[in-house]
Amino acid sequence: MSDAEQGEAEEAGVDGEAPSKKKKIIVIAAAVVVLLLVAGGAAYFLGLFGGGGSNSGAPQTGAAGEAEFVPQKEVYFYDLPEVTVNLATQGQATYLKVRISLEVADRGVADQIEPFLPRVMDAFQVYLRELRPVDLEGSAGLFRLKEELLRRINVAVYPARVDGVLFKEILIQ
């Protein structure tokens, strides 16, 4: 083989490898860009840039480096009388005993609710007696119970508003 033929063969070999090297470089560059985007997004959501991340309710540091605490909203808790009902079952009687506390904005709202307490207790009794033990299984069952009781109490005490229903005790026997 002459020197000219060898030079042409080497150029052909280099040209043959060039597209695969270019592809590798493009893939590596794309991977680096994706990695940087993921890292930047994670840093943003962790609040490293001072943006609205998942810790927006957490204490923030001020200019002097001291923690600034956002005061929590004032609430008032109103305890309802204990409720004991028998659940809807086919065979053996099953009882539900529940103690509930209502979360309201202030004492004034609790005072507005008090005259409607018989209506609230009636709504609770009627609803709870229709439940089956299966309806109260797991956290999803208790969440549905909470939401339904909250909806019913807000209908019963309108125009006053209850912000939350809190279970103090739940016993199924």
UniProtKB/TrEMBL annotation:
Major subcellular site: membrane
Annotated GO biological process: bacterial-type flagellum-dependent swarming motility; chemotaxis
Topology of the protein relative to the lipid bilayer: Single-pass membrane protein
Pfam name, any one: FliL
Entry GO terms, CC: bacterial-type flagellum basal body; plasma membrane
UniProtKB keywords: Cell inner membrane, Cell membrane, Cell projection, Chemotaxis, Cilium, Flagellar rotation, Flagellum, Membrane, Transmembrane, Transmembrane helix
Parts of the chain that traverse the membrane: 25-46
Residues forming coiled coils: none
Signal sequence region: none
InterPro entries: FliL
Localisation: Cell inner membrane; Cell membrane
Function: Controls the rotational direction of flagella during chemotaxis.
Protein family membership: Belongs to the FliL family.
Protein name listed in UniProt: Flagellar protein FliL
